Amino acid sequence: MKNNTSNFNNIPFQTLYSNEMITARVRELGLQIASDYIEKNPIFICVLRGGVYFFSDLTKAVPIPIELDFIQAKSYVGTESSGNVELIKDLDADISGRDVLIVEDIVDTGRTLKFLISHILSKKPKSLEIASLLFKEGGEAVGYPIKYVGWNIGKEFVIGYGLDYDGKFRNLPGVFLYSEE
Ligand code: 5GP
């Protein structure tokens, strides 16, 4: 029996993480990140567009001074990885010598993140860490430690809380398992 999002257009997807669960986990991660970055004036980078809600909630849950910037890469079409990663929007800030945290929605094959990590490292930050709301089985191929993870998940395709299916469903308040039925 599926839970449904009856308060959200009766969309019958199975809930993986409700908005309440996400809020609680984001609060924990925020406090952990704040204690790691206190007095470092870090710069947090939102990976558009999927990271937008996680980034928005996480940055508000980090009660220390931080700066924000945005980057966008593209690597996915529908539920299939296209295999190529392309930079669509670069950072505006100069991050050389800065403590940088990339905030991602999900690491799947790790291809996008691997591309972003090498792009950002080429700008010579002082440190670089990653926060990802979700980490899919197999994401280890990224070859870089993901220091802050909301949840580890299996290979299923998920939507909501920033994650889309062909541009839709990003604004679902929780994370749901996508199914065609
Ligand atoms: P990766 O390069 O790690 O394979 O995947 C990167 C991007 O693919 C993610 O940032 C996300 O936009 C998309 N992606 C990967 N897995 C999923 C998924 O389960 N659901 C959705 N909606 N997007 C995904």
From TrEMBL:
Its cofactor is Mg(2+). Pathway: Purine metabolism; IMP biosynthesis via salvage pathway; IMP from hypoxanthine: step 1/1. The lineage of its organism: Bacteria, Pseudomonadati, Spirochaetota, Spirochaetia, Leptospirales. The keyword Magnesium applies. It is found in: Cytoplasm. Transmembrane segments: none annotated. GO terms for biological process: GMP salvage; guanine salvage; hypoxanthine metabolic process; IMP salvage; purine ribonucleoside salvage. Pfam families: Pribosyltran (PF00156). GO terms for molecular function: guanine phosphoribosyltransferase activity; hypoxanthine phosphoribosyltransferase activity; magnesium ion binding; nucleotide binding. It is an enzyme of class 2 (transferase). Keywords: Cytoplasm, Glycosyltransferase, Magnesium, Metal-binding, Nucleotide-binding, Purine salvage, Transferase. InterPro entries: HGPRT, Hxn_phspho_trans, PRTase-like, PRTase_dom. Its EC number is 2.4.2.8. GO terms for cellular component: cytosol. Belongs to the purine/pyrimidine phosphoribosyltransferase family. PANTHER family: HYPOXANTHINE PHOSPHORIBOSYLTRANSFERASE, HYPOXANTHINE-GUANINE PHOSPHORIBOSYLTRANSFERASE. It catalyses: IMP + diphosphate = hypoxanthine + 5-phospho-alpha-D-ribose 1-diphosphate; GMP + diphosphate = guanine + 5-phospho-alpha-D-ribose 1-diphosphate. Its main location: cytoplasm. Residues 16-165 form the Phosphoribosyltransferase domain. This is Hypoxanthine phosphoribosyltransferase. CDD domains: PRTases_typeI.
